[in-house]
Task: structure prediction
Amino acid sequence: MAVEQSPRGTTYPVGMARSPLTLAALATSAVDALDVTSASPLGSTGSATDAALLFTRDGSRLIVRVPRTKSSDTALGAELTSLRALSGGIRARLPFPVPTFLGDAPAPPTRAFVYDHLAGTPVDVTRIGRGDPLAANIGRGIAAVHSLPTSFVADADLPIVRPLDALTSVSAIMDRATSTGLVPAALVDRWEHATEDAALWQFAPTVIHGDMSSSVILHEGDAVTGILGWHALSVGDPARDLFWALGSTTTGAADGIFEAYNIVRGSTDRQTRKRAMLYAELEIAKWLLHGTEQRSTDIVDDAVAMLHDLVDVVQHDGTRNIDTNTRPVMTVEEVEAMLDRDERHPEGR
Result:
């Protein structure tokens, strides 16, 4: 049986998947008086979790998940912490539902987690145009998350990422990718200018979902019916929740999402889209690093091809500029010093 070796030395079986009936039995142990009438598999073969959709006697639908890898176990545990932090009062501020954790039960070497089921299908961003009401509703939904009070995140001891932290993380990814010698010089120069641009990193941290993508946003018609995957809930850069929209080949979706988002959030951070664009580009750098770590020639070749395609795009599309051009370029050390000074003396802003 194949296993995943965790950094701590524990192993998780990743061979035979649990059947929907087995998962249903685990769910009845996790939730008192649960009466399951049928169960169907959920997710694709080879997924990091075993999952099933359960139908109950009273007409409810639930989801049960059991992690199959150390990383998925960690993610589900983090999501449980986040969902518990999202109290009824916090949820009432959102224009869409959030999953509710209902219970868990032992499923050695891990646990089975049970949630309510949210209606809807994942968003297909390639089918959304600029004037599409769904794009506007997505933008307003993300803005609602970013408008939540940061205090509940701090109270739950969830991560808080400040501007200097965000800049440091971006610089580290860029440096690691550059050290492979496979990133085109034009992108290295572009990314370096972004990390040296002080104005780009002067943002107010907000509550963020942290792992937003089209796959976690559910919809029915033009309405957003739920957002899944809250394992990375934190306070951080709002651009982290928006970069995925810029990866689409159809710019209309991104325009519609950002326009609606900016109407709700105002102009407090005019550089959000530029940072989001940088994050979107660095996703390719992460893919390159993944390929080198896995020693996968196919992944590395794919990432390199994507990077060269990106060079062509950014050199011929003036709308993809990520330089604020508001002041002389500062060195990385000067930017870090300025951000550190602002965080220590916020009243001086």
Observations:
- The radius of gyration is 22 Å.
- Residues 147 and 207 are 7 Å apart (CA to CA).
- The chain has eleven helices and twelve strands.
